[in-house]
Amino acid sequence: MKGESLKLKYYGTRGSLPVPGQDTVKYGGNTSCVKITVGATLIILDGGSGLRVLGNELLQSEFGYGQGTAHIFFSHAHWDHINGFPFFSPAYIKGNRFVLYGEHNSSLSLRQILSTQQNHVNFPVRLADMSSSLEFVELNAGEKIQCSDALISCFALNHSVDTFSYCIEVKPSGKIDYVSD
Ligand SMILES: [Zn+2]
After folding, report:
1. N or C: which terminus of the chain has fewer CB atoms within 10 Å of its end residue's CB?
2. H-helix or E-strand spanning residue 158
3. What's the rounded Cα separation, in Å, for the pair 9 and 119?
């Protein structure tokens, strides 16, 4: 049986703050963001400052004319994992569709967390004014999501806030575990 190929590219590997400069050229200076492709399915892990770079690349594909779909999984809401979202150009293009996944949290929803980051004091454009379709899915530890050929499972991590690791499995191609903070 031949399955879809599973590919990974890092767009952000740093924690806390972006760190540009000569000392970080090898792995880049952006904060957490990983692109996984499973055939034509696009899965993005975390929305740190690396998401800006990925977004600019995506403008050269169907996302440039509002026909793209991507699944974005957030490990947790610390700044270095969400601060690229306001600069994610494809999210400003009508017709694009993003499904945003994060941990179910009784105090703040994922939508509230991202909206707060873009309140009018902190950023000039509100989340609600981004023109693409944003759909929110809140997950509980142990849940599994099927994205075309990829089965994605989430697991609780020990961190200072509720945090998930994600396992992306594509049979028979392989499996990727994303374990951040
Ligand atoms: Zn963290």
Report:
1. N
2. none
3. 31
Between 45 and 1, name the one with better pLDDT: 45
Which residues are placed with Cβ below 5 angstroms of ligand 1, an ion? Answer: 78, 181
| Rounded-to-integer distance, Cα 24 and Cα 83, Å | 19
* Residue given tokens 């890092």 in the structure block: 10
DSSP class per residue in 133-152: EEEEEEE-TT-EEEETTEEE
CATH class held by domain 6-142: alpha beta
180 alpha carbon to ligand 1 midpoint, in Å? Answer: 8
Could you tell me the distance, in angstroms and rounded to a whole number, from the CA of residue 155 to the centre of ligand 1?
15
Q: How far apart are CA 40 and CA 52, in angstroms?
A: 21
Q: What is the Å distance from ligand 1's center to 38 Cα? A: 27
- Distances from the Cα of 100 to the Cαs of 18, 54, 170, 171, in angstroms? 23, 16, 20, 24
Identify the bridge partners of residue 88 per DSSP, sorted by sequence position.
Answer: none
| Ligand 1 geometric centre to CA of 17 (Å) | 11
Query: What confidence tens digit (pLDDT) does each residue in 53-77 have?
Result: 999 999 999 999 999 999 999 999 9
Question: At 107, is the pLDDT very low, low, confident or very high (cuts 50, 70, 90)?
Answer: confident
